[in-house]
Design the sequence.
């Protein structure tokens, strides 16, 4: 039985959607009230109710703050799953994106360029890579002593140089690197939309590929892929999650030459790392070693991307970003580092490609 929200309002202080809109119905407290009315049969599954549930980044900040540890994003996600068949035509941009990721993964580079031409993908700050990363590398044979890279869509289609950088670092650390070419999208976007059929199909494909490879560990350059590979039950049940390591935790104690950074630098916490896995110390330790680190979000602060959220609510996404931008500018940081591809896209879109970098970029 779900705990009942006592309407104390503690969560309002941290919810990025509520802070950007000031609307009670969009706050965790408001959403919990509506969910409870729906569960009691007093509220129909109207379009307005379904849209309200879509206006959540699933960032997890409300759960961390809640006196009863109510998992509001989980409640919202369960309902999104049950509403998905009716929802997809209203969330057509995100639906299209997740279908492209799921069904045309190998051909996605072509589709992305086509959509950019049609001006249908506004949150992309840069052109898709001329050639997907996975088509640039040779296939890996099964090897239990290797470290496998889960590439993720962002690196595969937009930032292939990060994939190469990770290979170089792992090789310099004397690891045997394995990158199965048949891997696909982790399925997070499908999952957050509530399209469980697609999320499961993608997970099954990755489970088959990585189980056959049987690596010692799996590492991914994307914090959101890390979160999904760690927490989606099919990955857990197949033993994949137990092998997944977070990139900053993996690198923090390694002896790797650093790039020379003389400017002030700051860290942007991906919500998936900060609020779902409480990982925030290691990236700061790494940045402190690399240059003049300045804090711009001691408690973490959402950038407003949220994957499908930015596609469904571009104006609200920008409004949430503006609050993040204010804290970044107040820190006087010249460069901003992060490790989530969604955050990277959002920050580069609004702050410029040159100022925003991936944590791998601190290494020489
Ligand atoms: S998960 Fe994040 S966006 Fe959603 S209600 Fe909670 S704090 Fe707000
Ligand atoms: S903090 Fe928890 S109990 Fe309090 S209003 Fe928010 S969801 Fe409800």
Sequence:
């Amino acid at each position: 039985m779900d705990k009942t929200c006592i309407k104390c309002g503690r969560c309002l202080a941290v919810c990025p959607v509520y802070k950007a809109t000031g609307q009670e119905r969009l706050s965790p407290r408001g959403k919990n009230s509506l969910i409870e009315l729906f569960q009691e049969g007093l509220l129909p599954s109207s379009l307005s109710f379904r849209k309200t549930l879509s206006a959540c980044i699933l960032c997890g900040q409300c759960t961390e703050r809640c006196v009863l540890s109510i998992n509001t994003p989980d409640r919202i996600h369960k309902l999104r799953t049950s509403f998905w068949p009716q929802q997809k035509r209203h969330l057509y941009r995100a639906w299209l994106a997740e279908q492209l990721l799921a069904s045309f993964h190998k051909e996605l580079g072509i589709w992305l360029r086509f959509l950019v031409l049609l001006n249908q993908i506004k949150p992309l700050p840069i052109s898709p890579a001329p050639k997907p990363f996975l088509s640039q590398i040779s296939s890996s044979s099964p090897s239990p002593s290797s470290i496998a890279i889960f590439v993720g869509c962002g690196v595969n289609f937009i930032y292939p140089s990060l994939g190469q950088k990770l290979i170089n670092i792992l090789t310099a650390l004397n690891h045997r690197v394995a990158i199965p070419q048949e891997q696909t999208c982790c399925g997070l976007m499908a999952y957050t939309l509530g399209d469980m059929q697609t999320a499961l199909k993608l997970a099954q494909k990755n489970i088959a590929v990585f189980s056959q490879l049987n690596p010692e560990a799996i590492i991914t350059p994307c914090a959101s892929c890390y979160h999904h590979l760690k927490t989606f039950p099919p990955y857990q049940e197949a033993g994949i999650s137990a092998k997944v390591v977070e990139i900053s935790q993996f690198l923090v104690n390694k002896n790797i030459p650093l790039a020379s950074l003389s400017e002030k630098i700051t860290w942007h916490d991906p919500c998936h790392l900060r609020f779902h896995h409480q990982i925030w110390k290691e990236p700061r330790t790494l940045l402190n070693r690399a240059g003049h680190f300045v804090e711009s979000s001691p408690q973490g602060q959402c950038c407003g991307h949220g994957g499908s959220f930015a596609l469904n609510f571009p104006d609200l996404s920008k409004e949430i970003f503006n609050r993040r931008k204010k804290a970044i500018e107040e820190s006087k940081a010249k460069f901003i580092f992060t490790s989530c591809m969604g955050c990277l896209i959002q920050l580069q879109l609004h702050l410029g490609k040159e100022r925003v970098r991936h944590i791998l970029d601190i290494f020489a």
